[in-house]
Write a structure and sequence with these properties.
The complex is a heterodimer of chains A (about 300) and B (about 250). Chain A is mainly α. Chain A is about 80% helix and about 0% strand. Chain A has 14 helices and no strands. Chain A is globular. Chain B has nine helices and nine strands. Chain B is an alpha/beta fold and about 250 residues long. The chains are: A mainly alpha (about 300), B alpha/beta (about 250). At the A-B interface, helix 9, helix 10 and helix 12 of A face strand 5 and helix 4 of B.
Chain lengths: ~300, ~250
Amino acid sequence: MNPLIWWEINPALATVVLGTALLGLATGALGSMAVLRRNSLMGDALSHAAYPGLLAGFLLNGTKSVAMMVIGASLFAALAQWLTGFLIRSTRVRPDAALALVMGCFFGFGMVLQSHLQQNPSAAQAGLKDYLFGQAGLLLEEDIALLATLAVLVLLALFVGWSRWKIITFDRAHAVSLGINVSFWDTLYNFLFILSVVIGLQVAGVVLMSALLIMPGCAARYWTTRMSAMVTLAGASGAILGVAGTFASNELSWPPGPTIVLLGFSWLILSFLVRDFRKKRTSYSGFSQDTSSSLNISGVGAK
Amino acid sequence: MNTPAIEIEDLTVAYGERPALWDIDLKVPSGVMMGLIGPNGAGKSTLIKTVMGLITPAAGTVRIFGKPLSETGSRVAYVPQRSSVDWDFPATVLDVALMGSFGRLGLLGRPKRADRQTARDALARVGISNLANRPVNQLSGGQQQRVFLARALVQKAELYLLDEPFQGVDAATESLILDLLRTIRSEGGTVVVVHHDLQTVADRFDQAALLKVKLLASGPVDEVMTPNLLQKAYGATGAELITSRVSQP
């Protein structure tokens, strides 16, 4: 069947399907890197931290402009990421506590801003609250352009830097000793990570964003023994989950974001049951790692 | 005399307020096999991490073959402690060995057929050709150490810095590593090893550096491993260890 015909039959659904597929592709691929770098929690912290930025973008502009809100959200997410790294480097706060602190504090600020904005009738109409839980059903064609840009950027960065990403992810110290500019690639990774969280907020919402990032990667790890296969599978399954979840949500009249996440979780359980329950993996990987290298925030774990 | 492989001057490294290394001056001549010894917390790993540019010193300079590290490219191979990475990583043994070829690869860093062959040869030299396609999360400690060595061999470096390569490996791996390091030296390479076991220092290395935040001594093994100096580093027990050994024929 020609997909373009189908686009004419139900353009609204087609837009959402394409949007969630693109987002699933980008976040699945990038999120699998987060899983390997052990900073899965960063997605959760950043999506919460981005919320007040989103509202601040709205506040400054006075209307719902996607560009302003994305810029505001990105700035707040970047600030949160820097602050987390600063707390870990310069205070006695441990990495997990630093993430929780920053996440709670920024989100609290977001809630205050939101209640302030609700008194303003135009803001109430703009549906800012939808960003908490996502509003994939309202994706417009201009959002598709944004999501497509994100997907292209992520795939391009992964392709161009592939061997460097691989070496840095496996052994950061070795990467430095080979003369790889680790801080550049870390910055690029953080930039893409923030961008996907911020753009994905609209679809998945603050609360479910991190699930979208992490689940395809966690599931893909069960099926693969090489990083290239893992990232590819995570990206592909992220896209498929987006499409399948959107159709399922359309049939069941469930909200799309949560449906995609629930479907992803089923995929993760299935992967676990099929791959791990059947044959116990022989793994000698029981090395303890200190928490700073486990969480590995903005290269703090480099030493 | 040749340019020293490593030349360290006035090096001080601190973690916060506490100095980890204090005013180190050390020359490692080219073509030697040096053991870096000292008690726990003496700064052995810190020293080679600083040489590799992984830690920024508070003061002092490090030159490798007479140049700053940024200009030495892949002439220096670093073999970190096995436990410094998460081995539950999706890669095969060959994948990890190939990572050593990065410095020779083009802009995109894609290995070519010749690089794969080099990696296979390196796996053969460390005796794990048969494991080339095995996922690295299914390796024993000794096999992990061999993979790290293969990765360093692929780099075709002139200076090898190894952090506790004999730690927790089986006897077969231990003697293989030792043979390999000796071969590297006989081919003109320089080897510096962070080492824990005082008993084996004299057998394994021709030079030693004794560290306890400050550098206590460096030079030929028999000049460094004296009861006097060891007592300074380890207290009485360390001195006893080595004296009992020396008294044997």
